[in-house]
Amino acid sequence: STHLPRTSACRIILATWWLLVIVVTTTYSANFVAFLVSNQNKYIVKSLEELANHETVTLAINEESPILDTFKVSQNELYERIRKVYLQNPHRFRNFTSETWDSSILIDVADGKTVLIDEISTLRRWRNKSSCNLALLPEQLGNVALAFGLRKRSSFLQPINEE
């Protein structure tokens, strides 16, 4: 036998209580589910400035990438600091090529020990693999200009222009 309030005042209080319980429960549940489901990117460094000032992280750069040459020859003050901190210190710099690639680099990146600088297409490919925990910075380091030489009225012209 259920005992329900008989007066209107008690019914209003009970309805308000249950409405409050439902609102609080759904809000908490929604926030908890959003926290569990969301892909939260945690950046070790967010810029080259932070990279130059970081004291423990290792830098890995693909030797085949023009970025390494830029760091080596640039007179930019920030690039000179990165050159001193990383490129001239074998304990804080790892270089690789496509032939000498070591998967431990990605493991160190996922563990927060290494920052990997490479071409955006390569980094996206590794990030899209299900076993890779890689966060790409929202800001790109530089731009590379590419050009295609095609014959007139080529069937590839429109798809390339749309891309």
From TrEMBL:
> According to its UniProt record, where is this protein mainly located?
membrane
Give the signal peptide, or none.
Answer: none
- The transmembrane residues are 12-37
Q: Does the keyword Cell wall biogenesis/degradation apply?
A: no
Work out whether the entry's keyword set contains Disulfide bond.
Answer: no
Where in this chain does the record put each Ionotropic glutamate receptor C-terminal domain?
A: 4-117
Q: Which GO terms describe its cellular component?
A: plasma membrane
- Identify the keywords attached in UniProt to this record, alphabetized: Cell membrane, Glycoprotein, Membrane, Receptor, Transmembrane, Transmembrane helix
A biological process (GO) annotation for this entry? detection of stimulus involved in sensory perception
Question: Where is this protein found?
Answer: Cell membrane
Gene Ontology molecular function, alphabetical: ligand-gated monoatomic ion channel activity
Classify the protein's membrane topology as the record does: Multi-pass membrane protein
Pfam families annotated for this entry? Lig_chan
The family line of this record is: Belongs to the glutamate-gated ion channel (TC 1.A.10.1) family.
- What's the protein called, per UniProt? Ionotropic glutamate receptor C-terminal domain-containing protein
Organism encoding this protein: Araneus ventricosus (Orbweaver spider)
